[in-house]
Design goal:
Elements lengths: L4 E8 L3 E4 L2 E2 L4 H11 L3 E5 H6 L10 E5 L14 E4 L2 H11 L5 E5 L1 H9 L3 E9 L7 E2 L9 E6 L3 E2 L6 E9 L1
Parallel strand pairs: 1-7, 1-8, 4-5, 4-7, 5-6
Antiparallel strand pairs: 2-3, 2-9, 8-12, 10-12, 11-12
């Protein structure tokens, strides 16, 4: 079986992930889990997600793959852990060729999540689901109701000490 991707996202009950090119939520334990999972692996993101990273710098200790339709897009050439591709298929080819021994995470944004689900390349979804209905401008398809995936794990509800938000972690795997 072809190796597939793990979709990693923090969503709310409306499947909103962001507003104004920023994450909707900053939950310390979610960000800590994100780092623990992705360090020493591959993160695949759209151009806007890359540009929203602090100082537009790649995530440290990870292979960063940026997907953009802009053929002229470039980043600082001093970054040795960044690749620019022009489709998720190119990202998959790059991962299969050079990073077969790593885990491949799709980390956003909305357009990349949509493409990955439409192209049916997602094998697992690791979601932080916030019990909130804040509106934003970036949403993803409702993976929680996607019949291609089944519940593998769901944590108890957790209340974030800083934000007082109620959330849980869940893992959905392809049936």
């Amino acid at each position: 079986m072809d190796k597939k991707f793990i979709l990693l996202a923090c969503v709310n009950k409306n499947m909103c992930i962001g507003k104004d090119n920023k994450l909707l939520y900053h939950i310390k334990s979610d960000l800590r889990n994100f780092k623990l999972m992705t360090v020493d692996n591959v993160v695949i993101m759209g151009r806007k997600t890359f540009e929203s990273l602090p100082n537009q710098r790649p995530l440290k200790d990870r292979i960063n793959i940026i997907v953009t339709s802009n053929e002229d897009y470039s980043v600082d050439s001093s970054f040795d852990n960044v690749f620019i591709v022009h489709s998720l298929e190119e990202a998959k080819d790059l991962c299969e060729t050079f990073y077969e021994n790593k885990t491949w995470y799709i980390i956003g944004g909305g357009s990349i999540y949509h493409q990955a689900l439409e192209n049916d390349i997602v094998d697992e979804c690791n979601l932080t689901v916030v019990d909130d209905e804040t509106e934003g401008d970036t949403y993803i398809p409702n993976i929680l109701e996607d019949k291609r995936f089944g519940l593998f794990y769901k944590s108890d509800n957790i209340i974030d000490e800083d934000t007082k938000l109620n959330y849980y972690f869940t893992i959905l795997k392809r049936k």
